[in-house]
Amino acid sequence: MSPIETIMRTSPVIPVLVIEDVAHAVAIAESLVAGGLRVLEVTLRTTAALEVIRAMKQVPGAIVGAGTILNVRDLDAAMAAGAEFIVSPGLTETLAKTARDREIALLPGVANASDIMRGLDLGLDRFKFFPAEASGGLKALKALAAPFQQVRFCPTGGITADTAANWLAESAVLCVGGSWLVGKGAPDAAAIRAASEAAARLG
Description:
The protein contains nine helices and nine strands. It has one domain (about 5-200): Alpha-Beta Barrel (TIM Barrel). With about 200 residues, it is α/β, with parallel strands linked by helices. A four-stranded parallel β-sheet has the order 3-2-1-9. The chain is globular.
């Protein structure tokens, strides 16, 4: 089993985190891990993101990765911060080859058959389906999965607590990415843990 597949199979839901304040990082990570979700994707959408990765890495049991990786410069910064895996919204040859050469666990985004075929040519068969709902939803993913029997997905984008189970019921789906678990502002530890526990039960 590849490193990225191991990560994908660790939890049914990977929290997709946009965190503005590094002071919130540890409490959020502790609440998610306590609720049963160990794999955390910190998106590089805020100026605090790299420090958030560093802080969350200190939480026992947390497997912390970086999302919104757009190029090798982002990858280098994320790895220097301690990211254990990399998630990208799309797939470029440069990013894929760099990750392969450095043996970095990469989950690149795909939205259509051409993306998947390009990934397969680069030796990849585990992908983020993004943006999941905007790209046609579960119906589109099922159609894409049919000709690519060896491929497995982590759909992300527009998935909610109410729809996650439907996605996870699809055999080509190993996990889903979810932004519903953590709200904006100061973290509500009890609410985050409760949401995490509910998400963990989907597995």
